[in-house]
């Protein structure tokens, strides 16, 4: 990882027209992600950059591709892939702003949910920079209306979000059409292992840059709560969930039967909970994990065995409904929260007989013993998950792709692309998470319109 060396834009070897325009925009000092990445980008090297929306990453890659643009050639020389139409519009707008002082530059957005015909006409008149969503760009490539043979810069913006939305295969197909002797720039808010596998396949010795986080390290607060009866333990679980209102909480039980009992009890009290255990078949397990990872269920109840291989980074809370059998398991359980500099809460429920187990833990559990929240929390409304899952009765075997679903949802009278969450397309089904407040609109959009020229059954999973 590179370190920050904050400097002025004027110190970079940029085209004088670009520098003059930056000054008029009052862009003087670089943000951390710009200071880290721009010198490397301008040197022509591949870059993997970690930066969220608002970090200044668009200006970093935008200046890089504008610096080497040949305005006399009306062939696509740079292509920027974005997860949603809204982000593509923002990126294109920022690039146009950065390019104001350079005459005759044509930046075109190609996104689903907008008419195809006018895009073909715009492409026919020539273009320098293409910004768009994977599904629509792949469609243009398939129909021969977009050529990428002259591309010298490929940008994957918010790559983790594109993977969440199921665009891995589509991105692979697009990359195959881009010349190998190109510069590849990948920006992502997080670095899941899938990102690094993409980088290994499509990048040449990339420089990894990461803007420093305000919060460093992980912060997990542990609490231990004495509950001597089964009823007390169940009530304690409800109180903790009601007080902390986690978007994502993992509850650990030691047996399959406890897992199902806890889930049934939470569901009875209107919590958005689901379980995974050994008695589920693979389809049921996959569906449960999809709903939890896409944010449409806020509580997942599991045994240690069932939770093995569960790769969910953004957990607000872990609750040990039962004390773990050994200290290593306890450490592994609570280590699932508080990752990547975020705060996490780990609560353990225990009875008097289990204090021997607690004494083996690498923590002063007595000092972490805490009273349970007030019973008043039980009378407050349960927090609804931010997302809701739609299940479409069509998948890979029906040649349905994530781009088809995004296009179908965002077309006329549809929903904004930034209200669409993770998309999972499997053999005969597809699961798409949409913002809960727009789920009825999304449902009607798919019910009333066609996806890929066909009508598919769709329902809300609850």
From TrEMBL:
A motif (Q motif) lies at residues 7-35. GO terms for molecular function: ATP binding; hydrolase activity; nucleic acid binding; RNA helicase activity. The keyword Protein biosynthesis does not apply. Residues 38-209 form the Helicase ATP-binding domain. Pfam families: DbpA, DEAD, Helicase_C. CDD domains: DEADc, SF2_C_DEAD. InterPro entries: DbpA/CsdA_RNA-bd_dom, DEAD/DEAH_box_helicase_dom, DEAD/DEAH_RhlB, DEAD_box_RNA_helicase, Helicase_ATP-bd, Helicase_C-like, Nucleotide-bd_a/b_plait_sf, P-loop_NTPase. Keywords: ATP-binding, Helicase, Hydrolase, Nucleotide-binding. Residues 219-386 form the Helicase C-terminal domain. Residues 7-35 form the DEAD-box RNA helicase Q domain. Its EC number is 3.6.4.13. Belongs to the DEAD box helicase family. This is ATP-independent RNA helicase DbpA. The gene is dbpA.
């Amino acid at each position: 990882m590179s370190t920050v060396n904050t400097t002025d834009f004027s110190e970079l070897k940029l085209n004088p027209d670009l520098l003059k325009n930056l000054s008029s925009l009052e862009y003087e000092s670089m943000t951390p992600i710009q200071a880290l990445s721009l010198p490397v980008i301008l040197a022509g090297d591949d870059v993997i950059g970690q930066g969220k929306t608002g970090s200044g990453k668009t200006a970093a890659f935008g200046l890089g591709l504008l610096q080497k643009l040949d305005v006399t050639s009306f062939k696509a020389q740079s292509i920027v892939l974005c997860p949603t139409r809204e982000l593509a519009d923002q990126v294109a707008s920022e690039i146009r702003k950065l390019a104001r002082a350079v005459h005759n530059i044509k930046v075109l957005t190609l996104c689903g949910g907008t008419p195809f015909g006018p895009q073909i006409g715009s492409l026919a008149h020539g273009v320098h920079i293409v910004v768009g969503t994977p599904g629509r760009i792949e469609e243009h490539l398939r129909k021969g209306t977009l050529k990428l043979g002259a591309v010298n810069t490929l940008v994957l913006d918010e790559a983790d979000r594109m993977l969440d939305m199921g665009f891995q295969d589509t991105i692979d197909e697009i990359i195959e059409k881009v010349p190998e002797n190109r510069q590849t720039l990948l920006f992502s808010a997080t670095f899941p292992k899938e990102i690094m596998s993409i980088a290994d396949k499509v990048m040449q010795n990339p420089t990894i840059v990461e803007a420093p986080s305000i919060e460093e390290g992980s912060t997990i607060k542990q609490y231990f709560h004495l509950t001597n009866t089964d009823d007390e333990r169940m009530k304690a679980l409800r109180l903790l969930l009601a007080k902390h209102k986690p978007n994502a909480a993992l509850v650990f039980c030691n047996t399959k039967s406890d897992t199902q009992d806890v889930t049934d009890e939470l569901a009875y009290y209107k919590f958005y909970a689901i379980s995974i255990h050994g008695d589920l078949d693979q389809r049921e397990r996959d569906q449960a994990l999809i709903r939890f990872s896409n944010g449409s269920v806020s509580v997942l109840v599991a045994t240690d065995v069932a939770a093995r291989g569960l790769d969910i980074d953004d957990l607000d809370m872990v609750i040990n409904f039962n004390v773990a059998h050994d200290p290593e398991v306890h450490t592994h359980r609570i280590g699932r929260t508080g990752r990547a500099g975020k705060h996490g809460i780990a609560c353990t429920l225990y009875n008097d007989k289990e204090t021997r187990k607690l004494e083996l833990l690498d923590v002063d559990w007595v000092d972490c013993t805490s009273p349970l929240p007030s019973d008043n929390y039980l009378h407050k409304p349960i927090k609804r998950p931010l997302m809701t899952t739609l299940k479409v009765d069509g998948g890979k075997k029906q040649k349905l792709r994530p781009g088809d679903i995004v296009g179908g949802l965002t077309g006329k009278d549809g929903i904004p692309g930034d209200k669409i969450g993770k998309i999972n397309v499997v053999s005969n089904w597809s699961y798409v998470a949409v913002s809960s407040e727009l789920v009825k609109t999304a449902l009607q959009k798919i019910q009333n319109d066609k996806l890929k020229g066909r009508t598919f059954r769709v329902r809300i999973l609850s």
